[in-house]
Structures are given as C-alpha cells and as structure tokens.
Amino acid sequence: MNDPLEPIAFRESPDGVSFSVQVQPRASHSKVTGIKNGAIRLRLTSPPVDGAANAHCIDLFAALFGVRKRDVTILTGETSRQKVVKVAGITPQLLQERVAQLLA
C-alpha cells in the first residue's frame, strides 16, 4: 500500500543516512509520491538512458536536503528502478521530516 505516513527504512552511518528509493522514470512531473514498503517512491521526468535518471535523482535529493550534489550517492541500483541512496550530512529525523513535508 502507498501510505505517505509509512516510516522510511533507513540505515544510519557516522557520515549520513542511506535509504531505499523506487524510481519511475519518464513521468510527467518529478516529485516524491509516497512511501511503499519502506522505500521512497520517486517520479522523474528523465529517461533511464545514459545515467540521466540517476543524475536527476541526485539533483532532486540534494535540493530536498540542502546538501551538495557530491553528498548524494547511489550506492546500489544504478541500472535498476530499485536504488539505495546515501545522503551525507543528514540525520534520520531530517530525512523523515523533509519527506513528510512533501507528502503533506
């Protein structure tokens, strides 16, 4: 079920937080649409060609959390719709708060 109040599954490390993302490329609008099975659901207008969707994903999360693009890393799933993204310099609380604000 797509429940915006569902908690995000994350893993905290000394330098940031990693979390699962489910990406839908070639959408009409780029936005966070909810949380499903602990993963953030993300629609991107970019096609999944030549890393365009990955770059757009990094741009979106950097803007969302107010960090530099180099602080956002795709750990796994570069060629998949299921990804694990790490954002350096944030806390789990900030992750939950910013996503909740977008879904409110």
Q: Keywords for this structure?
A:
alpha+beta; single chain; about 100 residues; about 25% helix; Conserved Hypothetical Protein Mth637, Chain: A
Q: What is the C-alpha radius of gyration, as a whole number of Å?
A: 12 Å
Specify the CATH architecture: 2-Layer Sandwich
Round the mean pLDDT to the nearest integer and report it. 93
Count of extended strands? 6
In words, what does this structure look like?
The chain is of the alpha+beta class. The chain has helices at residues 52-65, 92-103, and strands at 10-13, 16-24, 31-36, 39-43, 72-76, 82-88. It is 25% helix and 35% strand. Strand 3 and strand 4 (39-43) form a beta hairpin. It is built from 2 helices and 6 strands, in the order ββββαββα. Strands 1, 2, 3, 4, 5 and 6 form a 6-stranded mixed β-sheet that branches. The chain has a single domain, classed as 2-Layer Sandwich (Conserved Hypothetical Protein Mth637, Chain: A). The chain is globular, with a radius of gyration of 12 Å.
